[in-house]
Amino acid sequence: MAETEERLDVLTQTGQKTGISKPRGEVHRDGDYHRAVHVWIFAESTQELLLQRRADCKDSWPGLWDISSAGHISAGDSSLVSARRELHEELGIILPKDAFELIFVFLQECIINDGKYINNEYNDVYLVTIVDPIPLEAFTLQESEVSAAKYISCEEYRSLLAKEHPDYVPYDVTGDYGQLFDIIKQRYEENNVARSITLQKQLCRYAPVTLSAELTGLSDGDRKALGLIVEAARVVDEIFYLQVWYSNPALRDWLKEHADASELDNLKWMYYLINKSPWSSLDENKPFLTTADSAIKLLPEATKPVTGWNGLEYKAAFPMLKPPGANFYPPDMDKMEFELWKGSLTESKKHDATSFFTVIKRQSEFDFDSSLPNHTVDGRDYSTGVHDLFSIPYCKEYNSLITRAANLLQKAGDLAGSPSLKRLLHGKAAAFLSNDYYDSDIAWMELVSPPTCITENVCSFEQ
To answer: 102: which strand partners?
Structure first.
């Protein structure tokens, strides 16, 4: 049986989906706009980029040195899953989603092969930052796509592209693609003294304030209940870190661990504690950290083993722009995809998709992870039909954390002296486990606040 040709989503000239898909060959024959991914691997310690040499059988730029990994986004597929898949297929590298940083989108328009190959391509450009170069013998090259791999310094590669060297796939480094080199240069050439001064100025905008609670007149039971409520609030705080961005907890733990390494590291940690993210809330969410500041993670089985090499170390990535959908939605989901998916749902499923207490995920992400060797997933099985998106209620997405918080609130309710507060705490505990918050919201509005009650201390947690 003949292999089915890959189909691509056809876009408008401005990059919007048209709802039409065509075989890859026809897309390049007709010059249709479509999407692809570029994945760059950057070795931090040597300031080098990984290049691959395209196989001689390729229908575009055969035998030339090119991006670390690249490929089309097949019709209906997501950008991030495509990036992970291409890296795995072409180089044999298995990386989790937090290794990929989307740094910009690049439109490439060119005609080659005597007009037979028209490339109008929107490329999502990802940067994967590794600590040290991966040994070349650790790669598993896909012979139909890649014939060799090598490392090259950023400056040398940029110079070769500027000179339009015939051995390299051409990119205009004086145009949009030059952003790759500019981003890397800015991250690693920025003066630490200047960064420290900037962070000190940002910190000085905040005045320290001490808040205390009036506990006079509380019974022993209410005092114990208050302690349990505070403990539950700390658990909910952990959920908040996850909701901001999926690598945010790793970043937090890394900054805390290294806060005493230098004055700059301490300032990073202090300002992170205020914002609870790498984005400055008083500066229109401009980042005060980059992925270069982030946590280092070791993956011994990301490639095939090499004697004397412990495995791949990478920086947990986060985007330069704070995602408008935080970690409630896939980072590469756009409004059109969401609306098309929502329109295909039953009223009940549509309510779940638009609930305040659900997270939207991709089925393809779980499918891809489950297909990888030595990789386990959580066993979720959600039906998505022809669409890739599905919703998960908070009570399942944050199950272990939210169960802990619910148990603490249940115990606090048992100890509380006020009947209305008891109802609120028990109701909120039940809501955490059921994902139905209506009764607990009513209990909050009906809460009675006598002079000697811990009601006011509950407010900060409830809000």
So the answer is: 126
List, as own/partner pairs, every contact residues 193-198 make where C-beta atoms lie below 8 angstroms and the sequence separation is at least 24, other chains included. 195/264, 196/263, 196/264, 196/267, 198/288
- CA 427 centroid distance within chain: 33
Assigned token pair, 345: 């749902």
Span 265-284, pLDDT tens digits: 999 999 999 999 999 999 99
Residue 454: what pLDDT? 53
| pLDDT score for 379 | 46
Q: How far apart are CA 359 and CA 110, in angstroms?
A: 40
DSSP β-bridge partners for residue 110: 119
Contacts of 310 (CB under 8 A, 6+ apart): 298, 300
301 CA to centre of own chain: 21
Q: How many residues does the chain have?
A: 463
Q: 312 and 139 in contact (C-beta within 8 Å)? A: no
Q: Which residue has tokens 């901001």?
A: 244
Alpha-carbon torsion (427, 428, 429, 433), positive or negative: positive
Q: What angle do CA 234, 227, 244 make, to 5 degrees?
A: 10
Across-strand partners of 299?
A: 312
Please write the tens of the pLDDT for every residue from 101-120.
999 999 999 999 888 899 99
